[in-house]
Protein: NADPH:quinone reductase-like Zn-dependent oxidoreductase
Amino acid sequence: MKAIVVKDEAAGTAGMTLVETAEPPAAINDVVVQVHASGFVPTELEWPSTWTDRADHDRTPTIPGHEMAGVVTTLGYGATGLSVGQRVFGLTDWHRDGTMAEYVAVEARNLAPLPGDVDFTVGASLPISGLTAWQGLFEHGRLQAGQSVLAHGAAGAVGAMVIQLAREAGAYVIATGRTADRHKTFDFGAQEFVDLDNDTLADVGAVDLVFDVIDGDIRKRSAGLDFVVESDRAQLGEIVQRVRDGRLRTNIGGIAALDDAAAALNPAERISGQTIIHVRS
Ligand SMILES: NC(=O)c1ccc[n+]([C@@H]2O[C@H](COP(=O)([O-])OP(=O)(O)OC[C@H]3O[C@@H](n4cnc5c(N)ncnc54)[C@H](OP(=O)(O)O)[C@@H]3O)[C@@H](O)[C@H]2O)c1
Structure:
């Protein structure tokens, strides 16, 4: 199968190479999915799990990309809840080969059915951004109607989901980002915008919840907890239902074929929104 691999951490996305490699076997509880579309998080080549397995052994060359939409082709021993030929979407294991490939092996429990009226491109863009926003707002943040949310980096993939889900839950949303992001965050439903390049964040005053995807100095200004997004079939179902009935839009900034993925993920100019890789057209 064709896949994008990385071998050299220092090279970053510029080190992505298109190769021919073996299709993954289905391990216990896995399904193998023929990937139609794959997402990529801009920072994933900085994550330790991209380079080592759970025992901290080098696992390069590795296939990046940890969210996808596709069709189940094989059921491994013990895999339940899904069937061959089923359309699915979801999150894949951080420590295993990922989704920028024609096939990926993933535990069945990490996937959810993708309804026939949601295309694969949209499906691939939902798991990481949608689950991160959902879990941050509702599980970790315990957001209630009437509360205020400060959403940093709100014009990005996660941020756009944060704005929309928080608004739907009855929160007041103050978005932050770069000067050029103002209109986009209003378009996703933000009620105020703080231009981090020009405005003073302290002027915002107290808020109930800060959702920070930017890190750095901003983090030091608020108390909080770190979390890593987890697979959750029921939450994926909630998210995709909102997409179907128009309550939720994804933030896709570009689409590229697998053959062009390395170039597309190394853009010469800033792209606002997520780049989705079309693996199969
Ligand atoms: N812990 C978890 O489970 C989890 C899950 C998902 C994502 N994440 C993390 O969340 C982050 C965002 O992910 P994403 O997919 O939403 O990325 P993204 O689509 O690139 O969005 C990030 C947004 O924040 C903006 N931004 C970054 N630094 C900024 C700064 N200093 N001032 C103003 N704006 C700034 C970006 O603008 P520019 O493009 O101009 O920089 C972009 O609009 C990543 O670091 C990712 O690793 C964590």
Observations:
- The CA atoms of residues 261 and 277 lie 6 Å apart.
- The chain has two domains: 2-126+250-278, 129-220.
- Helices lie at 120-125, 127-140, 157-168, 182-187, 217-220, 233-244, 261-264.
- The chain is about 20% helix and 25% strand.
